[in-house]
Amino acid sequence: MRIFVAGIATESNSFSPIFIGLEDFEASLYAAPYQHPDTPTLCTAALIELRKRANKENFSLIEGTTCWADPGGLVSRHCFETLRDEILEQVKAAIKDEPLDGIVLCLHGAMIAQGYDDPEGNLIEEIRKLVGRKVIIGASLDPHSHLTDKRFKYADLLCAFKEFPHTDFEKTGAQIVDLVIRTIKGEIDPQMAMFDCKMIDVFPSSRQPMRQFVDDMIEAETKPEVLALSLIHGFMAGDSPWMGTKVISIYDGNMQNAEQLAKDFGKKIIAIRGLAMPDITDQKLAVKKAIDLALNQQTPVVISDVWDNPGGGVAGDGTIILQELLDKNKIENKLKICIGTIWDPIAVKHCFKAGIGAVIPLRFGAKSAPYTGQPIDKIIKILKLNAIAQQNFGVSQVPMGASALIEFKGIKVIINSTRAQAFEPNLFEEMGINPLEQDILVIKSTNHFYAAFQKISNHIIYCDAGKPYPNNPKTTAYKKAPKDIWPIVDRH
Ligand SMILES: [Zn+2]
């Protein structure tokens, strides 16, 4: 048995000014064939699983390029075509003397490139043209993606993470690998169906009612004939013609059952749309609540800047919550406050030149996009510099790039140079801050932070500050996304 693995993964926010090129993949993850580290990243868990299985079961694993760029705006045409053609050449080389039995693609699924509304669909189609119909093609996906007609047509097996936060990424990697191997061996006959829910929403699974929905999906998969069940939540910042929530079910040997299962779960998710997000408060209320809790020793309080989340493709350099804290946190409060992180590579460069202990005038933050506040101009002290800061996300390592810890008016701020949302509290430790000793922690993330931060804080405040992200589909100026979906139109 011979299996090829490769992948291009990123998430494109059509409304973000952060253009994505090859250097962004290099900054986050670019692994040439056989160069992928031993630890999986969010979208490459299938590769690590394949290495384990190939070792144990003695089949040939041919590794191609795998790469990941932190979410941003459009991917440049040159960047996508370069990475795609690299993988296509690797497939050609792999089938030159001997055929392949299977291909596993480590995708995210929400990429949009200049000139390509469906880059992943294009990649799968081109691979299919090279290898023919008989080779089994499977792909792992992030649920915040677009399920396009091409992907559905040219792939045999598609599995997405069920959890949001995506704590089950290794499980999903193992699932797609297992299904591809069993299909090649002829042990199963996967029939894949899709149900289009004609809607778009955000579905954190750390709370009800989505928790139950995910538990029901996991329960459905315990039946041996249900090979996989996935929900594509959709990605509302991607102006894709296929944007929206869709269910994928894979049944063993029975298409009718696959279709019924997809439809049943489609109806279930339609029933909870509009109910899944937690209460989100504006920055004034969020800061007031946080200060009150902190003064009552309910610490640390966590404020999450929900929409200025680099994980959704925006810059992550908004200063609105910081400004509110500066306005409200009188020095006499003496609260320990740390912001992690604000993206500003130029300010980081200034700090590195000045060095630890230097006191310098610095302008930082809010430079990339409108509706994210004003840059902060302060005389700051540089407390710590870290040239290769990174944080954990489960077993994977997420680069934050060269980072500086600065302080002014009793507030500490981590400024970083590789955009990254907050995943785990060790992002503070990485910069010499013990998060447990802080009164208020401000982070940028929609929900991925929740699994790890709820372990250190009983008070998590979801905050809606500014308008960096198109979070209301009713008012977003889509050009290509379908207009006949909920909540853009009311539908039952
Ligand atoms: Zn996601």
Structure characterization notes:
- With 492 residues, the protein is an alpha/beta fold.
- The chain is 29% helix and 25% strand.
- It has two domains: 2-271, 3-Layer(aba) Sandwich (Rossmann fold); 281-464, no CATH class.
- It contains 13 helices and 18 strands.
- Strands 10-18-11-17-12-16-15-14-13 form a nine-stranded mixed β-sheet, sandwiched between helices. A six-stranded mixed β-sheet has the order 2-3-1-4-5-6, with helices on both faces.
- Helix 2 packs across helix 6, helix 3 (77-94) packs parallel to helix 4 (119-131) and helix 9 (283-295) packs across helix 10.
- The radius of gyration is 23 Å and the shape is globular.
- Bound molecules: zinc ion.
- Zinc ion binds next to loops.
- Residues 142-144, 166 line the site of zinc ion.
What's the helical proportion of residues? 25-40%
Biggest beta sheet summary: 9 strands, mixed
Beta-strand fraction estimate: 25-35%
Give the distinct bound molecules: zinc ion
Q: Tell me the strand order in the biggest sheet.
A: 10-18-11-17-12-16-15-14-13
Unreliable residue stretches? none
CATH topology name of the largest domain, in short, is: Rossmann fold
First-last Cα distance: 48 Å
Alpha-beta classification: alpha/beta
How many structural domains? 2
